[in-house]
Structures are given as C-alpha cells and as structure tokens.
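TA notes. Do not distribute before section.
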Amino acid sequence: MLNKKSVDDINVKGKRVLVRCDFNVPLQDGKISDENRLVQALPTIKKLIKDSGKVILCSHLGKPKGEPKPELSLAPVAVRLAELLGQEVKFAKDDNVVGENAKAAVAAMKDGEVVLLENTRYRIEETKNGEAFSKDLASLCDIFVDDAFGTAHRAHCSNVGITQFVDTAVVGYLMQKEIEFLGNAVNNPKRPFVAILGGSKVSSKISVIENLLDKVDTLIIGGGMAYTFMKSLGEETGKSLLEPDYVEYAGKMLEKAEKNGVKLLIPIDTVVAPEYSNDVPFKTVGRGGIEADYMGLDIGPKTCELYTEAIKGAKTVVWNGPMGVFEMSNYAAGTIAVAKALSEIDATTIIGGGDSAAAVNILGFGDKMTHISTGGGASLEFLEGKELPGVAAANDK
C-alpha cells in the first residue's frame, strides 16, 4: 500500500507549515452553502496548531482562470474557519497570492497562529504547474502538508510543484484516510467485494470498469450507463441516454465479466417517462420493454430488490454514481434503495465522491457510511488504478 509520511511523522514546533486544503466550497451571495470540506480539514489544522506550528493555509476556489475575481475570494472561508477553530484566521489578501500582505502576515506569525492565503487560481501558473508560483509558495514555508484529495489527480503548483522546492512534504489526515480507504478497498478488499457504478456515461468510467472487473466479485451497473449495456444485448432503449460508440465496448465488458467469474448485474426493470421531467406520467417496464418514445430515468422496483440482495452479503462496497435522476423525486427510488442497503450492512462502505456523495448526504445516510470520498474525479482515477500526482509527490516513509 502507498506508504506516505503524514503529519504524525514530523515535528512542526516553531516551523512555518503550508497546508494545501480543499476549500473549494459552494458560495451563495458570499455565504458558504455547504461547509463539509471545511469540517473535513479541521483535524489536520488542529493537530498542527496543537504542535505549535505556524499554520499557513491555501486552496483554490472555483475557476477564476488566473485573474482576481472578488466573488471567488477565500475571504468568507477565513471568517467561517475562525468560528470553527475558535481562534483568529488571518486572511492575507493578495491578488497575486504571495504578495506583500502574505509575506508580512507570515513574518509576523507566532507559534499556533493561522493565516489563509488568497485563492491559488488567481495566479495563471497554478493550473500549469509553473515554476515561479511554486517557488513563491515554497518561500513562505519550511514544511508542506497536502490535505487536498479533491485535487490529487491534478499536478498544480500548490500540490505538486511546490514539493520540488521544500525539503519536507507530507500528507494530512484527510489525504491519508482517502489513500487508506480507497487504496485498500481496491487493492486489498475483504470479500465479497461489490462495486456499484452509476451516473450517465460509460465513456467516463471505462477504465474504472476495466480495472474493477479484475478485482471485484460483483459489479452492479445503474444510471444512464445501463442503457448502453442493454443495447449491447440487442435490447430496445427508446429515447434513453445512449452512447452508440460504446455499445461494442459494453458487450466486451459483459464477456470479460463472464470470463473472470464476476457477476455483472444490469437492470431487469426500468422506470420510464416520455420526457426528462418530474411532471409527466411515468411507469415501470420489464427488461427490453422500453418503447421508442420513452426514456429510462431510474432502475425499477425489481432491480432495487436484486441490487439490495447483491449488496447484502458484501464485506467491501465501493459506490460511484447514482442509479437514476435522483434529484427528481419520481426517479430517486433506485438511488435511495442502494443507499439504504449500504446503510444496513456490516461492511466497509466507500462512496466515491461527486453525485453519490451528495445523494447519500441529502438522503440522510451519510453517517452510516464508512467513508465518503471528498474527491469525485480523484476517487475515480484511484479506482482506475492510476497513480495520483498529488499523492506521489509526498515523501515516502
């Protein structure tokens, strides 16, 4: 397993510690509407404060594309973090992130104090991993801590570039947890190991399906991608979401599953409607029964039973992607059934970020899951078996 040095392996007393967090939170009228990412960052920050480090935080927010956009400033994050930590978080307002303000704020720090830098993406070099900005960030600190799993699949200045110019680069608790749960689930799972893949496109999950078919005991397919699998079996899919270029690929995956002795489940009934709307009459049809002018929008009740049954005996489950259009109440039953099944089993249950994480939290099952990943794209690449640049850049034990 990936064995990276963490905040438990370093002495930060009196040192300047730059922490890359994931404070990419949704803002509405300058207010944070979901602070889950701030809360998840607290254990690492508190540990460094307790150990008398000088704690400098940085993160991106949205896509300012290399220019200062006031509505994407991290100023509101500093205010809320101060409340959550119960101590001042000094906001270093600099349009070029590492400017006079930031340098002065860091120079004046006492042990255990906290400074937050401005949005790292105000600098055009950030997403291009440009050397000048990496050096600027490194100049502020003695030690670098990466706790932003959500950006681990990208090589940017604030998570990868900086590590070339500091002597010590370690991971924070959140990053460590992600590596352990996702890494172990995929590479060393307790069996039976069940993976559930939903969401709209086969194309975005191709390598995940490939990789998981070599590792799981059961692979469950739902969401829009199911129709491409149905089509590969020669079934009618009506106006359902379909990726014609991937029909043949889906067929190959069904063959690979059979060859590997993996149970690959696709829906046996479907909730259909004449259009993509919650305000039209909908009905349930059996396998192959989707009419030409209807589209599938959720898995049906028999499929819910089939999938719940398949989940029941599992010891490890990874879930990425909803079973239907769960934001519309008429097509949420499939996603609810899967979330409920996961909440009731004695197993390691891992939710791979993005829409599935949102669904589990909205439906109130969040606290019943072993681990909810904070990074949708990063967790997918982990499930593909790829090395993530943000993880690779940290020092090995």
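Switch to the second chain here.
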Amino acid sequence: MILNAAFICLAVSIAFTVFRVLRGPTWGDRITALDFLGVNLAVLVVLTAIKTSFVAFLDVALIISVLGFLSTVAFTRYLLSGKVMK
C-alpha cells in the first residue's frame, strides 16, 4: 500500500520535473531539473528493489546517482567556461 503511494508520488514528481526540463526559462533551471530527474530515477530503482526484494538494484541506484552527479557538474562547467576539462 505504502509502496504504491510512493510510486504515484514519484510519477507526479517525474512529470513535473520533465515539464521543467522542457520548459525551463533558463539553463540553470534545466540543469537542476536534469539533476533531480536523476535523483528520481535512482529513487525509482530503489523502490523497485524494495518491491521485488532484488538487492542488485541498489547497486544500480548507486551508479545512477554517481553518474547523475558527475553529468550535472560536467554540464554546468561546460556552460560556464566552455570546456569540461582544464
């Protein structure tokens, strides 16, 4: 019951985040929304791991979180300085 409510809340959150990615007035809003979309995806994987009792999904959620953080930093750095690496 609680997991179903969590999935519904997560679906609403993903819908609002996708809207912000598509209609964000500035690049900063879009970058923040993409980062939050990665967080939502990681939470979706964790909820799926809880629902199915498949522990390997937790490793997938960790990888998604790390990749989301690194892509946010790289994209922000590219927009601010024009290059990702020094």
